[in-house]
Specification:
This protein has 805 residues and is α+β, with helices and mostly antiparallel strands. The protein has four domains: 140 residues, no CATH class; 106 residues, no CATH class; 291 residues, Chloramphenicol Acetyltransferase; 188 residues, Chloramphenicol Acetyltransferase (2-Layer Sandwich). The protein is built from 26 helices and 22 strands.
Length: 805
């Protein structure tokens, strides 16, 4: 998602402002520190690691084994083959009266050793099994005999009732690809966007790199992959995110929307109360590891490491490098309303506050008539400023307003009670969705604390949204939390007939604590500069959101194609029609099949996709044209192959990134790696995951569908495009670009996407009627594409649906 812009700009963060911004220390020292950080994380999770580390066994299995050994001794059998007696001889002699105690202790030690050996064997076997990726490369719907055997063995060795982190010790490490394969794949990916002359020059640089530098850099990467948990993820977090000096707003954060069609209650404080309560319920389940680990395709566990820093986490600015501060617990949230900051406790002596009690606290804030102090209203604009500037100002805040700053940075998360409504409206559905997206992505430039792991945004009409800082985790993790929150606050907690949270209020609760900022005069100018820059950036962002309802996942499934690959190839066609040329395209996919894996880049602008797009240039031939259909299937198959290779650790960009970092540590300049990391991604795309929690019954309640989320453009003259499949028959697109660019227009690209999807669908017999009958959302005018959308607000007397959660 937003990582693409950070990835494109990380090289500048290494080379700007002189040598101080460059990686410091020799490469072996950095590799050693990477491993040390990995081991420190393991030690900090010791107790959870013990509970999950014995998985698929359990602590009770040790008791069973010990009891079985004692029973064997009672029957005068020796399952240890004399080892228990040897252990007993090594124990101190405490006298005759303790002879039986020595026997029990020796049996316990033998049982522990045997139990540990069995667990180690299970871990090794499961890790070897999870290293198999043949199932990922097989055609969809087909399963070979080796894969069936593998799946049966995984189920046998996986145990029952896993906890969130149960599989962490069994996950394989991310492999370091062959450098020759990576360079070959890279050259193949840039061939469609380079002239013959430029390609020959790039290929020459690549051959020189392979001959002179690749083997040494690769050796260091292999050493790191053996020593650290992951050969690339910690460097990715540091150099792509934490060393970036750009503003977090638009450049790094991304947003998530509420239900598209439904607002469960129009009462702002009630919606905030239920949402905050649901989020803290999620945190409680997270701490107890009651959240089930995610299984890809229902059989392959994914790494859960990113869940550890969802809550109680803040990105602290530094002059050269930020750092992530994570607290073990926090019993309050920080709230922003009309330029004022509040601290709201979330727990009493009896535990988590009820939704009604939280609503009461939020309503007290909404009813508070006190004005904001001078410059307090715009203080949060500093978190949208360049990181080095904010770091210097924050030092003054630490000395002048330490308590208030700690209340915000030490909160479980940040809550913004906005004074304006948002969401889909009947009067102007297209413009209202665009404004909703813009409010979540950038707001007013001073009403979000962008350093927090996420900000919960509650609009005056009860609509919700989420603004997420990107460095601590990727979208699927925050998306899982968001799905749980929406399902829990709407279906499980629910609302009374008058739109308030259920249950009685608690008048004994103390008033929310108003935070007071003693702002020195020298900070006032910094706030004004930060606010001006934030408003300029916010005003330059063009957001466009439109639901496409002609067809969705079910139609693509009937075409026997991957839904994601179908859309990616269609996006190539739409972008070509918009700009008249091909460009490097960034698609993010996950590498969580491996321990501490994060993301990899798929490059959808392939030779096969370009051939299809050029064939579609003649619109008279597109409807049912067999040649175009054959080229489209080839492009989809190629994209699927690239996607699966990236997921299985055989991608291009993370390997080249890690090679570049090693070259910087060694002070060995590589013209080839410099060329690779000077590229601009003018089209960045991402699919928003949906229904990860299986809490939504979309078929029975089709209005309760998520409208997804989006991110800012990666390039100043490019687009950011995200999409989400809403149920089986609709897709929502989120498009962003810069208004200052004469080359881009989000609404224009949206129209091209709609046309491209219908043109691609017309290649199939079933899809030809879709192009002939543009109905519902499919009006020619892009401004009216949302004209027939339903919009519901559940207020007084509205019955709440029920479902199992």
């Amino acid at each position: 998602m937003a990582e693409a812009r950070q990835a494109a700009g990380f090289r500048r963060s290494l080379t700007s402002d002189g040598a101080e911004a460059e990686p410091g220390g020799p490469v072996l020292q950095e590799i050693y520190l990477s491993g040390l950080r990995s081991w420190k994380r393991h030690l900090s999770r010791f107790w959870n690691d013990f509970l999950t580390g014995v998985f698929p066994a359990s602590p009770l299995s040790w008791l069973f084994l010990f009891s079985a050994i004692q029973l064997a001794w009672f029957l005068q059998l020796d399952p240890s083959l004399g080892l228990t007696e040897k252990i007993k001889e090594l124990l101190p002699d405490w006298g005759g009266q303790h002879h039986r105690l020595r026997g029990l202790l020796a049996a316990a030690l033998f049982a522990s050793c045997l139990w540990g050996a069995l667990i180690f064997t299970l871990h090794v076997a499961l890790r070897l099994l999870l290293s198999y990726h043949g199932w990922l490369l097989e055609p969809h719907g087909a399963m070979s005999s080796p894969t069936k055997t593998w799946l049966a063995l995984v189920r046998i060795f996986s145990g029952r009732h896993p906890m969130l982190f149960s599989y962490q010790r069994s996950l394989p490490r991310q492999p370091v690809p062959s450098v020759q394969d990576t360079v070959r794949k890279y050259l193949e990916s840039v061939r469609p966007v380079l002239s013959d002359e430029d390609f020959d020059w790039t290929a020459g640089l690549a051959q020189e790199f392979l001959r002179l530098q690749a083997s040494l850099l690769q050796w260091y990467l292999r050493l790191k992959s053996w020593w650290a948990s992951n050969y690339v993820s910690d460097w990715w977090e540091e150099f792509v995110y934490l060393r970036s000096r750009n503003s977090l707003m638009v450049n790094s954060n991304y947003y998530m929307m509420d239900f598209l069609y439904v607002t469960p209650t129009p009462v702002q404080a009630a919606r905030a109360g239920n949402a905050v309560h649901a989020l803290l319920l999620y945190r409680h389940r997270l701490n107890r590891q009651e959240i089930l680990p995610t299984l890809l395709m229902g059989m392959r566990p994914l790494c859960s490491a990113q869940y550890e820093r969802i809550f109680n986490t803040t990105r602290i600015p530094g002059v050269q490098k930020d750092h992530i501060r994570h607290l073990q617990d926090s019993r309050h949230v920080a709230v922003f309303h009309r330029g004022r900051f509040f601290r709201v406790g979330t727990h009493s002596q009896s535990g988590l506050l009820s939704p009604r009690a939280l609503e009461q606290q939020f309503q007290r804030i909404l009813d508070d008539p006190s004005p904001a102090c001078p410059h307090e209203e715009h203080l949060a604009a500093l978190t949208a400023a360049p990181r080095d500037m904010w770091a210097q100002v924050r030092r003054s805040l630490e000395s002048q307003a330490e308590d208030a700053l700690e209340a915000v940075e030490g909160a479980a998360f940040f809550v913004s009670l906005d004074s304006e409504p948002a969401g889909l409206t009947r009067e102007d559905p297209a413009a209202s969705l665009d404004a909703y997206a813009h409010a979540l992505l950038a707001g007013n430039g001073h009403d979000r604390w962008y350093d927090k792991s996420f900000t919960l945004i509650v609009f005056s009409n009860g609509k919700l949204g989420l603004s997420v800082e990107h460095s601590w985790a990727d979208c699927p993790t925050s998306g899982h939390m968001w799905e749980f929150t929406l399902a829990t606050e709407c279906f499980q907690l629910g609302y009374s007939v008058d739109g308030h949270c259920k249950g009685p209020p608690d008048p004994s609760l103390p008033q929310p604590q108003r935070l007071h900022w003693d702002l020195p005069d020298k900070i006032h100018r910094s706030i004004s500069l930060a606010l001006r820059a934030a408003k300029t950036l916010s005003g330059d962002i063009d957001c466009h959101v439109f639901p496409f309802s002609h067809f969705g996942k079910s139609f693509i499934r009937r075409c026997h194609l991957s839904s994601n690959s179908f859309l990616q190839v269609a996006l190539q066609l739409a972008h070509f029609r918009d700009r008249g040329r091909f460009c490097l395209t960034y698609e993010s996919t996950m590498t969580r099949l491996f321990l501490e894996g994060r993301t990899e880049t798929v490059r959808p602008c392939t030779r096969e996709a370009c051939l299809f797009v050029r064939a579609m240039a003649d619109k008279e031939k597109t409807v049912g044209d067999p040649q175009c259909l054959a080229l489209f299937r080839l492009a989809v198959d190629k994209h699927q192959a690239l996607l699966k290779a990236a997921m299985s650790g055989q991608g291009v960009d993370r390997h080249l990134f890690a090679l570049y970092i090693v070259s910087q540590f060694l002070h060995r300049q590589s013209p080839f790696l410099d060329q690779v990391h000077s590229e601009q991604w003018q089209l960045a795309t991402s699919q928003i995951p949906v229904q990860q929690t299986h809490l939504f019954d979309v078929h029975n309640y089709p209005d309760y569908v998520s409208s997804g989320g989006g991110f800012g453009p990666v390039d100043d003259h490019g687009y950011g495009v995200s999409y989400i499949f809403m149920g089986d028959d609709a897709i929502t697109f989120h498009i962003s670009s810069k208004k200052s660019s004469a080359k881009t227009d989000s609404h224009r690209l949206g129209q091209h996407i709609e046309d491209a999807l219908l043109d691609v669908a017309s290649l199939f017999q079933e899809g030809q009627r879709l192009k002939r009958g543009r109905r519902g959302l499919g009006q020619e005018d892009s401004g009216s594409r949302c004209g027939s959308l339903p919009c519901h607000t559940r207020g007084s007397g509205a019955p709440m649906p029920s479902t199992n959660v």
